[in-house]
Amino acid sequence: MRLSSLLSLATNVAAVTISVSKDEGKDASPLQYGLMFEDINFSGDGGIYAELIRNRAFQGDEFMPSTLDPWSAFGPADISLFNLTTPLSSALPTSVTVKGRARGEIGISNPGYWGIDVLPQTYKGSFWVFGDYQGDFKAALRSASSGEILASVNIPSHSNTRGWTKHEFALDSDIAAGYKTNFTLTFVAESSHQVLNFNLISLFPPTYNNRENGLRQDLMQSLKDLNPSFMRIPGGNNLQGKLPGSRWKWNETIGDLIDRPGRTGAWRYHNTDGLGLIEYMLWCQDLKVEPVLILWAGLYLDGTVIPENELDFYVQDALHEIEFLTGDASTEYGAKRVALGYATPFEINFVGVGNEDHFSSGMTSYNEYRFRMFFDAISEKYPHLQILSSTIELDPIPKGAVLDYHDYGNPDGAVRNFTLFDDQDASNKILVGEYGVARNNGNEVLWKDHRKRPWWIASVAEAVFYLGVERNPDTVYGCAFAPLLQNIESYQWNPNLITFNANTSATVRSTSFHVMELLSNNRFTTLLPVENSDEYDPGFWVAGLNDDLNTYVWKGAVYNTTTEQEFEINFPGSQQGAVAELTVLTAPDPFSENIFGEPDLVDTRRTRLEAGQKGFAFVLPQWSVAVLSWQYRSTK
Ligand code: AHR
Predict the structure, then answer these.
(1) Are residues 516 and 529 in the same domain?
(2) Residue 126: inside a domain, yes or no?
(3) Residue 49 C-alpha to ligand 1 middle, in angstroms?
(4) Which ligand 1 atom minimizes the distance to the CA of 355?
(5) For ligand 1, is residue 237 a contact (CB within 6 Å)?
(6) 229, part of any domain
(7) Is 361 a residue whose pLDDT tops 80?
(8) Which pLDDT score is estimated for 454?
(9) Could you tell me the pLDDT band of residue 448, with boundaries at 50, 70 and 90?
(10) Cα 501 to chain center, whole Å?
C-alpha cells in the first residue's frame, strides 16, 4: 500500500468522525502490555538462556535418566557415561569418561543448540575434570563441515585423582564465521590408557548487561523493543509438570549450577534450570518489568490433584518461595538468598496460584480448597500482594482476587472480544496472562502447522482485542502474547511471537510482534472517552492521553472489510494546522506471515499529518493497525 493512497481522502465509505474528550478520563493501568515466559520451544535452554553447550551435564529426559546426545568423541577416543563413586555433585551424578585408543589429541565435541554463533567476541567457559593429567586442555570452536579451528585457547590442567577440579577459560574469537560450528574440548593422550572424566562443560557468549550465567543479548533486545511492563513466569504448563513429582521446584533452581539437578519439562525436553528463580528476577530487573510469579498449586498436567489433607506442604513451599525472594536476612529463607549473594530483597507485587486449573479435572478441587488455601495463607502473611486465580471460572471469587484469563481462539473471536471486558466487575480485576490467536476462522488449531504464523489476519484481530483491553483499564491490568519465543530447530507450539535459531542475526519478529510493539510503545496514562459518528466494526479504536509526553494518542485497527475506512479525528485543542504523527502497519494480504529466513512482510509507514478543517483526516486500508499521536506541547 503506497502512502499516498493511505492519505487520500477519496474513498467510497463515509468517514468515521471521532472526537476525543478531555473530561472524565480513567487512570490507565500501568501494566498494559507484558510478556509470558515459560521454557517451551527451547526458548529458555537453547534460547534466551545464553548457555551454548547442549546437554552440558549429561542429563536425560522422561525416557532416559541421562544421555550422551548430542556429544560425540573427538579423535581416537571412546566416550561413555558413568556414575562415578565420586560424582561431581548429587544433583549432577553422571559424567562422561573419555578413554584414548591411541596417543594423540582426543576429547569431546558438542554441536551446541543446533549451532554456535562464532563472532568476534570473547566467550567464557568452564568445565570440571576428574583424573590425572599434566598437560594442557584445548577449548575450540571449529567449523562443523571442515573441522578447521576458528578460535581456540589452551588451558593448563590442574586435574588430579583426588577429586573434581573446575577449569575456567576465556576463548577469544577474531572472526565472524557463522553458526554451523562445534565446540570441542580436547587433551593430549600420552598413551592408549589415558582416561579422564568431564562434567558441566559450559560456554557463554557475552550476555545482556554482562551478567554471569546470563541471557542472550539479541533476544533481550527484541524483548526490550516490545516495551513490556510485566512478565508472567515461569509458566504455563511447564511450571505444572506433566507427571506426579515433575513440577517446577523453585528451590532446585537456585545456587551453584552444580547443585541444580534440572528436570524434564512439560514440553518433554530437559530443563537445566540454569535459568532459575534468581535469574528470572534479574531478567525482570534488566527489562524493568513487574514479575508476575506463578506458584505451583497442586495440579499436575495428567490430572493428578494433591488432596486437601496433603496440600499444606505445597502452600508452605509457596510461602517459602516468596520469603526467599522478598524476605530480609532475619528471615529463614531470605537469609538463604542473602547467602547466595543477593542482599537486597526482590520486589514482588503479583503472585498467581497455579496455571489453568480449569483443565485436567482441576476445577472442582481448585474451587473447593486449593485456591482458598493458597489465597488465605498468602494474603495473611503478605497482605500487599495481588493474588491471581489461574482461571476466570473460579467460584466463589474472594474479593480482591485477580483473574488470569487465557485465550487461544480464532481471529473473528478475538475481534468479538473487543467488548469482552466492558461489563467486568471491577472488584476482581483481570490479567490476560496468555493470549494468541492459534486457530483459523474454521476453528482449526494451528499449533502443529509449524514454521509459519502468526499471520496477518490473526495479528490484526489481536490488535482489536488489545484495544478492548486498553479501553478497560479499571478492570484489566494488561495482556501478554503467548508463547513468546520459539527455536526454529525444535518446537512444540505455534504461533509464537519471536522465532530464532543459533544464528543471532537471523531472528524473525512475527506479524504479531509488530502489532504489539506499536501498541505497547504508544501508551496512555489516561484513557479518554470518545464520541463516534459510527459504530465499531470494521474499524475499532481507543484514545487517551500520555501525560508524561504531553501527547494525545488514538489507536485503531481495521478488520475484515472489503473497502478502506476513512477517519477524521479531533483531539482536545487540536486546531487546523496542528501536526501529528501517523504510523500504519499493513501486510500484503491477510495470510501474510513472517517466515524464518524470508523477508519481513509487515510494512510500517510513519508520516506527518496536518489537521484540516475536519481534524486529522486519513484513510486506513482493510487489515491495518494504526496509531495517531499528537504532541500538543513539547516536554521541555
Ligand atoms: O502457551 C502455551 C501453553 O498454553 C501454556 O503452557 C499453557 O498455560 C497454555 O495452555
Answers:
(1) no
(2) yes
(3) 20
(4) 8
(5) yes
(6) no
(7) yes
(8) 78
(9) low
(10) 15
Question: Residues 97, 200: one domain?
Answer: yes
Indicate whether this model's pTM tops 0.70.
yes
Residue 521 near residue 532, CB atoms below 8 Å: no
* pLDDT bracket for residue 8 (50, 70, 90): very low
Tell me the residue range of the domain where 463 lies: 32-46+280-520
Ligand 1: atom nearest CA of 493 is: 2
Residue 262 lies in a domain: no
The answer, yes or no, to whether residue 490 has pLDDT greater than 80, is: yes
* Region 608-620 average pLDDT: 96
Residue with CA closest to ligand 1 atom 7: 236
236 alpha carbon – ligand 1 mean position (Å): 5
Which grid coordinates are listed for 570? 479531533
Distance 187 CA to ligand 1 centre (A): 45
Evaluate: CB of 357 within 6 angstroms of ligand 1.
no
Are 287 and 422 contained in the same domain?
Answer: yes
Closest listed residue to residue 203, CA positions, set 52, 50, 45, 44: 52
Task: Pick the range with the lowest mean pLDDT from 51-65, 103-117, 293-307.
Answer: 51-65
Atom of ligand 1 nearest to the CA of 482: 1
Residue 587 lies in a domain: yes
Query: Is any atom of ligand 1 closer than 6 Å to the C-beta of 483?
Result: yes
> Checking phi first, is residue 50 left (phi over 0); if not, alpha (psi -120 to 50) or beta?
alpha
pLDDT at position 279: 98
Q: Mean pLDDT of all residues in the chain?
A: 94
Ligand 1 pocket test, pick from 407, 486, 493 with the greatest ligand atom count within 8 Å of Cβ, gives 493
Q: Is there an atom of ligand 1 within 6 Å of 493 CB?
A: yes
- Whichever domain contains 100, its CATH number is 2.60.120.260
Average pLDDT of span 407-417: 95
Q: Does ligand 1 have an atom closer than 6 angstroms to the CB of 436? A: no
Pairing of strands 350-353, 386-389: parallel
**Is the beta carbon of 434 within 6 A of some atom in ligand 1?**
yes
Closest ligand 1 atom, residue 267 Cα? 6
Distance 88 CA to ligand 1 centre (A): 35
- For ligand 1, is residue 481 a contact (CB within 6 Å)? no
Ligand 1 atom nearest to CA at 359: 10
- Ligand 1: residue whose CA is nearest its atom 4: 236
- Given its phi and psi angles, is residue 376 left (phi above 0), alpha (psi -120 to 50 degrees) or beta? alpha
Q: CB-hemisphere CA count at 13 Å for 283? A: 32
| Of the candidate ranges 114-118, 202-206, 533-537, 626-630, the one whose mean pLDDT is the lowest | 533-537
> For every residue of 486-516, which 3-state class applies, written as one string?
EECCCCCCCCCCEEECCCCCCCEECHHHHHH
Q: pLDDT tens, 532-586?
A: 988 899 999 999 999 999 999 999 999 987 889 999 999 999 999 999 999 999 9
Residue with cell 510469579: 293
Same domain, 607 and 478: no
390 CA to centre of own chain: 18
Q: Ligand 1 centre from 456 Cα, in Å?
A: 22
Sign of CA dihedral 26, 429, 549, 627: negative
Q: For ligand 1, atom 9, name the residue with the nearest CA.
A: 236
Return the pLDDT at 446: 67
Co-location of 176 and 287 in the same domain: no
